[in-house]
Each structure stands twice: as C-alpha cells, then as structure tokens.
C-alpha cells in the first residue's frame, strides 16, 4: 500500500472557528468595545438566538463561515448558527486533535474564519488602531492558545494588517519570533482596494517573509471575488470554477516582478487543486516565448521554472492532477483535508487518501502528504509527533 | 458606539438582511447532523465488515496461513467501529461545554 502507516498526513488547509472570547480576552480595554464580540440575534423561526460577530459596529452573520450568500432562504437555517450547534473540534484545539486522530491526520495548518482566510475583515472599520490590535490578538490566540495546545501538530499561520505594509513587516517579524510558520496573504490584493502585486508596494512585506522563512499561504477566495459568469447562474457554476481564482493568482504572480525581486519567497495556493497546473504552465510558457519582448515582464526566467522554484499547489482529491503529477512537480504538491468544512472526507481522510494514492510510488506519496509540507513550513517531526495513524497507531 | 439601537437589535433579522461578506460561498461547515450521520454510517460499515470477517473465519473455508491476517482485520474493524461510536458520543457531550461570550 503506497500510503504507508508511518507516513504522516499533513493538511495544509484546514479551518478553525474563533471562540467568542478570542478578542475579548486579549484586546486592550480601550478597544474591547470595538473589537469582535458575539451578540445574540433572534431567529425568525424562533428557538435559541443566532450568535453573530459584531465588529466596529457592523454585524457579520457567519460565525463559522457557513455561507448564506446565494442560498435559498429556506435552506439558510440548516447551518450552525451557534457554538453549541458546531462540532467542538471547530473551536477547541484539544477536541480538534481527537477529530484529527480519528481522521488519521497528523498535523494541520488552520486558516481563520471570522477574520476571513487572509484576515481581510480587519480592512473594514474606521478605527485602524483597533484593527491592528485585533490582528495582533488573533495571532497571539493562534500561536499561544491554538497551536500552543500541540506545537507538533499545528502549523501556525498569522494574518497581517494589510492596510499598512510597514506594520505588516513588524507583525511578520513579531510572529516569526513566536514560532509562526506561514503568513496568510490574499490571492490578489487589487480587488480589495489594495495595491497590486505588480507595484513595489508589497516588497518590504515579501522581503520580510523571505527573511523569516515564512511562505505565503494564499487561500482561494481571499481576493473577495468569486467566479460568476452570469449574474443569474446557479451556484454550481461558481463552485465548479473556484479553482480559477488560483489560476488567476498564479498567472499574475508568474508575470509579475515578485519572484525576481524575492528569490527566496515561496507561495502555497490553498485549495486551488492541481489538475490545471500543467496546462497553465504550458500556456504561460507559450505566451512568454512569443510575447515577452514588447512587455514589461522579465525576459530571462520561464514561468514554469519560476513555478517549480516558488509555488506549491494543493488538493483534496484530484485524480487528473495526480495522474499528471510529474508535470506539476512532485516537489510542488501538498495535500489538504479542509476540515471542518463539508468538502472534507472526515472521518475517512486517511482511508480516502489510501485509495487516491493507491497507484503512486511510496517516495512520491511521502513527499505529497508529508515531506513537502515539512520542508516548506520548516515543520520537522519531533518527539511529540504521533506515529502517523493518529489514534490508530 | 458600536451597538445598534435597542429596537433594531432585538428585532428578528431576515436572511437577506444578514447577508454579509464571506470568503467563499461553498465553505459550509460540517454540521452536527452531517457529522453524526457520517459517523453512524462508518460505524455500520465497520461492523458489517467485522461481521463478514467473523462469518468467514467461522465458515471453515479459511486456509490456516490466512487465518491470523483475517483475525487481525476483524479486530481492527471492531476497534474502528468502537472508536467511531466513542467519537459520536464525545461530540454529543462536548457540545454541552460550548463556549459562551463573556
């Protein structure tokens, strides 16, 4: 069996739900009123009130990122709207470990929920001082409380105060010193009203990430834009096309100055899939060969070479991508679980992985499920690591 | 400064009023009901597989050389079913300790 018992499954894309007191417990008193806090909202159909986040005077309905946008209102009430309607593993790092054990998953990189996957919620609100305190409070929670519960099993990811690049640099340095292994960054900052990656604006941030050895984790959707060819099309269209955001992000990066100015920067494209990568690299190389001379793009580095050096593509299940894994690059593929989202295969992630990797050689499986992630995130096995099968070891 | 007027905050909010920005539209949380159903299905599958293995072992059709492996498989399936059932119970109990805002 190619997925050997001693191989650790490392998920580079899971999610946590912030418990109600993450900010209440950590914000300086002057910001506590403005900071995120849970408020009760009566439900139309009665019963216990919904719990929603309120931040700087605005209410955010998705405590668990259980989406409501685009759904028929009659289906709206089926998602968890209170903490006591969620799996405890969503918000409790010790309970999460038990769920991971059951799933055969050794380690997880968890993206935030209320702050959004790249912390972009803190771009909102007029009080930037409060927003900065909220970013720092989230990162302290993530490092000290969440990852601190099991440092060998959680890969700490920090969010940044994206409205101020110098503060971003300071937060990268501060959190790296506390053990952060990766930084959340939007797949494309331009739609968020921020300078694009083609400007020099982000250079200090990228340099700081290089210096700290912290790759950027870009989860799809973090640009705030989703693919919707027709305004009245069904959600199935957007869901099918979600990976296109990662295609856009990758192509934009490959033709930007980012990798040329930052030769040690690494990027993980979370949840984007891998099956499309060979075609996109072929296409980018084709365009580069024919069209680079009259454009302001780098002339001496082929896009596919930049990809191999700088970019990691991530998947849950992707048969076509695995069949073409050598065209993607065995060293450029990461596995993910996506717990506790319904896309995950919990509690059978390991079983599904055994089936997915059935025809792939051991050494390649090891790199995809464990080795690449440990190298990229500087997250070596330790004495506290389990035996690979979680509770089944 | 941040709280809504009393009347507004106590009024029921319709779905359209509650729509807000989210990173992604399909990132639904695994619900308790769905998770419980997944666990129940897996418990049933594991128990079925364990029962089939026990039936096979008792049928007398198993070669001596295969017996130890099949016994180990049956034990593993039984243990997995117990583990899944315990997880369902743990999740049910854990919900009672859900965090409350301070």
Automatic annotation (TrEMBL), chain A:
Pfam families: Amidohydro_2 (PF04909). SUPFAM superfamilies: Metallo-dependent hydrolases (SSF51556). GO terms for molecular function: carboxy-lyase activity; hydrolase activity. GO terms for cellular component: cytoplasm. One of its GO terms (biological process) is secondary metabolic process. It comes from the Bacteria. Keywords: Hydrolase, Lyase. Residues 86-379 form the Amidohydrolase-related domain. PANTHER family: 2-AMINO-3-CARBOXYLMUCONATE-6-SEMIALDEHYDE DECARBOXYLASE, ISO-OROTATE DECARBOXYLASE (EUROFUNG). This is Amidohydrolase. It comes from Nocardioides marmoriginsengisoli.
């Amino acid at each position: 069996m190619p997925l050997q018992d001693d191989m650790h499954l490392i998920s580079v894309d899971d999610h946590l739900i912030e418990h109600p007191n993450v900010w209440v417990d950590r914000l300086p008193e002057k910001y506590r009123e403005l900071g995120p806090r849970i408020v009760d909202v009566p439900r139309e159909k009665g019963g216990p009130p919904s719990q929603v986040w309120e931040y700087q005077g605005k209410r955010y309905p998705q405590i668990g990122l259980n989406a409501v946008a685009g759904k028929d209102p009659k289906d709206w009430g089926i998602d968890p709207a209170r903490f006591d309607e969620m799996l405890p593993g969503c918000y409790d790092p010790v309970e999460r470990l038990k769920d991971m054990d059951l799933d055969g998953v050794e380690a997880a990189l968890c993206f935030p929920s209320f702050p959004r996957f790249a912390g972009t919620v803190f771009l909102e609100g007029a009080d930037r001082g409060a927003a900065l305190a909220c970013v720092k409070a989230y990162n302290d929670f993530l490092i000290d409380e969440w990852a601190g519960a099991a440092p060998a099993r959680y890969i700490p990811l920090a969010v940044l105060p994206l409205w101020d690049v110098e503060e971003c640099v300071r937060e990268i340095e501060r959190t790296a010193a506390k053990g952060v292994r990766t930084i959340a960054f939007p797949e494309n900052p331009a739609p968020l009203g921020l300078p694009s990656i083609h400007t020099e604006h982000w250079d200090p941030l990228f340099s700081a990430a290089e210096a700290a050895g912290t790759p950027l984790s870009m989860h799809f959707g973090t640009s705030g834009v989703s693919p919707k060819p027709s305004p009245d099309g069904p959600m199935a269209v957007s869901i099918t096309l979600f990976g296109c955001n990662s295609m856009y992000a990758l192509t934009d990066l490959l033709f930007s100055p980012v990798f040329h100015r930052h030769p040690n920067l690494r990027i993980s494209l979370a949840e984007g899939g891998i099956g499309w990568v060979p075609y996109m690299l072929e296409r980018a190389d084709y365009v580069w060969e024919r069209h680079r001379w009259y454009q302001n793009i780098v002339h001496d580095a082929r896009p596919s070479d930049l990809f191999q050096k700088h970019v990691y593509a991530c998947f849950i299940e992707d048969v076509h991508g695995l069949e073409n894994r050598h065209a993607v690059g065995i060293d450029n593929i990461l596995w993910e679980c996506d717990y506790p989202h319904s896309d995950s295969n919990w509690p059978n992630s390991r079983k599904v992985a055994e089936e997915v990797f059935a025809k792939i050689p051991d050494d390649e499986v090891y790199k995809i499920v464990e080795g690449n992630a440990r190298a990229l995130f500087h997250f070596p096995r330790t004495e506290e690591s389990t035996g690979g099968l979680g509770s089944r070891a | 400064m941040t709280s809504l007027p009393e009347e507004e905050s106590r009024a029921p909010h319709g779905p359209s009023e509650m729509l807000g920005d989210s990173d992604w539209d399909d990132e639904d949380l695994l619900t308790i009901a769905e998770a419980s159903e997944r666990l129940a299905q897996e418990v049933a599958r594991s128990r079925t597989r364990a029962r089939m293995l026990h039936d096979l072992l008792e049928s007398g059709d198993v070669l001596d050389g295969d017996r130890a492996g099949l016994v180990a498989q049956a034990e593993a399936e039984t243990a997995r079913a117990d583990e899944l059932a315990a997880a369902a119970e743990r999740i049910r109990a854990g919900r009672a300790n859900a965090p409350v805002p301070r």
